[in-house]
Amino acid sequence: MKLYEKVALVLRDNIESGLFVVGDKLPSIRQLVAEHKVSISTVQQAYHQLEIESLIEARPKSGYFVCYQRSASVLPATSRPAQRPIEVSQWQQVLEVLLSKEGVDTIQLQHAMPNMTESTLKPLLKKMSDLMRHQVALSLPYGDIKGALVLREQIAQLATNSGCVLHPDDLVITSGCQEGLSVCLRAVTNPGDIIAVESPSFYGSMQAIQAANLKAIEIPTNAETGLSLAALELALEQWPIKAILVTPTCNNPMGYCMPEADKKRLYQLAQSYDICIIEDDIYGDISYQLPRPKTIKSFDEDGRVLLCSSFSKTVAPGIRVGWIAPGRYRDKVTHVKYVSSSMCPTLPQLAIADFIHSGRYNKHTRRVRLLYKQGRDHLIQCIKKYFPQDTRISFPQGGYILWVELNKHYDVVKLAAQCKQGEVSIAPGTLFSATGKYRNCMRLNFSEQTEVERERGIRHLAHYIKKQSIVEGHH
């Protein structure tokens, strides 16, 4: 642990234990320098880390103050899905979301899209433009089936941040994370096999399960710590589960980061039942925690973890550059990737490789992390202000989406249809279940809007919630 992390840990413990409460002024930088016998920059880094985590705020010429209010929001309840294997449905609803075209004035709270307006993306756009102008011939021949070596080298380097030791040859480049998940599922299963998933779970991975003719068993999931390991173990004892598909870091749709000890225990469970884990780490690089949380893959001793990620959520989805670290399944994954789409376009790979190598990817993720954290706090504030008092809200630890649970009386599917006419779009909770559960829930994003737009969108939603309440006779 670095020095600044030790200082941050002490301060965090003091805040979370109630030694400092909301509004309290924290010790000055000079006081902490003397107390911990560290440099000024170490204390500044510690305070910056706590700012990212929304525990404290800096007030110009006044110092640092506690703003930690996590307990003020009630987190969504631990989910209770039916614990038996089921066939995934919901494709029609997912297709509607994918095909929906919002109007110019629609406030988009529906799609998990990154902020693509920041100036930190300009060097990437320039590099893509230069490649198209001066090296377009590189895009014409077939490339390496595993992907451009220069990109695999950069990804292997990046992976050290999450505790992984990877060689460029351990990696296969894909067309986004969606292809990665689909390839992995096909590489490790046969039709009819059972896959354990979090509940709620990302609809894209659920549709990949359906497309591979597999069954899903939904495991109860906690909004703060993730997949229930006790429930998973019971399911493993009861059913011939072939693989576990999880998004343990900055989860979609709930935003939690599974504690490191639980990630290790999950890996050990997979070992004892001799099954594999497909780990979706697409939001990992925009976790608010520093150092960045470890992946389950970082504990992998025998190659049973297939790690998938991409630059779709950290940079831009249209680039379609993803990757897999498939461990012992490398040959099978390479074969499935070949029959699925052969190779990926070369130029976007070269542009992303340059973006990482130049240090600009890190600069970009640092910038947007701060914006997303501010967006989260503002969206939660708006929901508390306008939504019914018994609303439950997740508290994302990274990324830019959160989960909202309304009273069971409400029907968010109807709400979503009404809202479209009212210039706001949302993702109803039913999309995130194999069987259309979570009808009283929704996923909202906080990446693209201005604060004014975001608040207007939540006011619109609150209006329709109230309207539904009156029509249905709920109070």
UniProtKB/TrEMBL annotation:
<keyword id="KW-0238">DNA-binding</keyword>
<dbReference type="InterPro" id="IPR015422">
    <property type="entry name" value="PyrdxlP-dep_Trfase_small"/>
</dbReference>
<protein>
    <submittedName>
        <fullName>GntR family transcriptional regulator</fullName>
    </submittedName>
</protein>
<keyword id="KW-0663">Pyridoxal phosphate</keyword>
<keyword id="KW-0804">Transcription</keyword>
<dbReference type="Pfam" id="PF00392">
    <property type="entry name" value="GntR"/>
</dbReference>
<dbReference type="InterPro" id="IPR036388">
    <property type="entry name" value="WH-like_DNA-bd_sf"/>
</dbReference>
<dbReference type="InterPro" id="IPR036390">
    <property type="entry name" value="WH_DNA-bd_sf"/>
</dbReference>
<feature type="domain" description="HTH gntR-type">
    <location>
        <begin position="1"/>
        <end position="69"/>
    </location>
</feature>
<dbReference type="InterPro" id="IPR051446">
    <property type="entry name" value="HTH_trans_reg/aminotransferase"/>
</dbReference>
<comment type="similarity">
    <text>In the C-terminal section; belongs to the class-I pyridoxal-phosphate-dependent aminotransferase family.</text>
</comment>
<keyword id="KW-0805">Transcription regulation</keyword>
<dbReference type="Pfam" id="PF00155">
    <property type="entry name" value="Aminotran_1_2"/>
</dbReference>
<dbReference type="InterPro" id="IPR004839">
    <property type="entry name" value="Aminotransferase_I/II_large"/>
</dbReference>
<dbReference type="InterPro" id="IPR015424">
    <property type="entry name" value="PyrdxlP-dep_Trfase"/>
</dbReference>
<dbReference type="InterPro" id="IPR000524">
    <property type="entry name" value="Tscrpt_reg_HTH_GntR"/>
</dbReference>
<dbReference type="InterPro" id="IPR015421">
    <property type="entry name" value="PyrdxlP-dep_Trfase_major"/>
</dbReference>
